[in-house]
Prior knowledge:
Helices cover 25% and strands 22% of the residues. It contains seven helices and 16 strands. It has helices spanning 24-36, 49-63, 67-70, 122-147, 231-236, 296-307, 309-312, and strands spanning 11-13, 17-18, 21-22, 39-43, 82-84, 104-109, 168-174, 183-189, 195-200, 206-209, 216-217, 225-229, 245-250, 261-268, 275-276, 294-295. The model has no long low-confidence stretch (mean pLDDT 92).
Amino acid sequence: xxxxxxxxxxxxxxxxxxxxxxxxxxxxxxxxxxxxxxxxxxxxxxxxxxxxxxxxxxxxxxxxxxxxxxxxxxxxxxxxxxxxxxxxxxxxxxxxxxxxxxxxxxxxxxxxxxxxxxxxxxxxxxxxxxxxxxxxxxxxxxxxxxxxxxxxxxxxxxxxxxxxxxxxxxxxxxxxxxxxxxxxxxxxxxxxxxxxxxxxxxxxxxxxxxxxxxxxxxxxxxxxxxxxxxxxxxxxxxxxxxxxxxxxxxxxxxxxxxxxxxxxxxxxxxxxxxxxxxxxxxxxxxxxxxxxxxxxxxxxxxxxxxxxxxxxxx
Length: 314
């Protein structure tokens, strides 16, 4: 009987992970949440509230600039990072949707960043934030490795400290829209990579959908961060873990004058040449692999390119 769902997300206390040792209670909670909902909350994560606040502020400053300034670091068909407002996330899932999601994003390949000229403090603040995210990512991957019955350092060689690492930090801005029931701000999708660490403001609108259930609102408790796994981790676990469908909507009770929403997503992706295939020790006896092995770069960019057809045509 499932004990977790989108309304009662589990909270993982990372203070239970110290000196390379993981409390068995943390492992048990993590495994059940990964099997049942694919989302969880982390507390005692080690990222300062001041740093999160400063990064939100510099993101807002970037988006408050004229479009002519933001477009100086625009996403292109030859450079799939940078600023854009053309993405249709549902294209990655169903191939459906022709109208861009009403949002804009700035995407930074962490291992090979390109920086905007303004705001002046953008680079140092974002660099500090991404470094803090990497430290948190290592903790979470240690937990995942133990849950998968692997050595605690199992994932280390899959995330090289080189330009081959495909991890992306995404700053998101959702301009004000007229509130209405289920008005889409980011169309339904699953994340493509290994895991996502999300910081979001208190405007609300993130929703999760589990099989056979309705869309449920998801919020983040004060002082916590939200984590979900992506398709690659579901493949590594041979469908034992859940890469869960989610979207962002304008809630019907939102402000009619300003429901601008901001969030920051740290998309943890492996090295481009890492092969994504099920981990044998985690399969049930006699169970076959449910997905063919695929290079990380091929999968991630294939999904990403499908969401930006207007950019890829240029």
